[in-house]
């Protein structure tokens, strides 16, 4: 009985699709954008940031102080 119902539903779907072909419409339109000037990677990599350098210097000092506290004075535990 299940097989008969499946064949019947398949036949009905096939008849509907044969009667009206499937029409696919693409409604999305793409816009053309202007190209952006991309800087040369050498210029980007060689550029230094003073604020960033200062931040890293302060972080280095803080890490040295923490290392000195945790090891008892210096990197090898000198007292």
Helix content: 55-70%
What's the total number of strands?
A: 0
SSE string, helices as H and strands as E? HHH
β-strand amount: under 5%
- Poorly predicted ranges: none
Shape: elongated
| Largest β-sheet summary | none
Give the C-alpha Rg: 36 Å
Q: Roughly what is the average pLDDT, rounded to an integer?
A: 82
* Helix/strand/pairing category: mainly alpha
Cα separation of the termini: 91 Å
Number of helical elements: 3
Task: Summarize the structure in words.
The mean pLDDT is 82. The protein is mainly α and 79 residues long. It has 3 helices and no strands. The protein has helices at residues 2-19, 41-46, 50-71. It has a domain at 40-79.
List keywords for this structure.
79 residues; mainly alpha; elongated
Q: Could you provide a short overview of the structure?
A:
The protein has 79 residues and is mainly alpha-helical. Helix content is 58%, strand content 0%.
What's the topology here?
Layout: H1 2-19, H2 41-46, H3 50-71
């Amino acid at each position: 009985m299940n097989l008969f119902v499946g064949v019947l539903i398949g036949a009905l779907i096939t008849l509907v699709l044969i009667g009206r072909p499937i029409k696919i419409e693409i409604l999305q339109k793409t816009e053309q954008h202007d190209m952006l000037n991309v800087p040369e990677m050498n210029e980007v990599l060689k550029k230094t940031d003073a604020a960033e350098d200062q931040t890293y210097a302060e972080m280095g000092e803080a890490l040295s102080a923490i290392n000195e506290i945790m090891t008892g004075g210096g990197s090898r535990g000198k007292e």
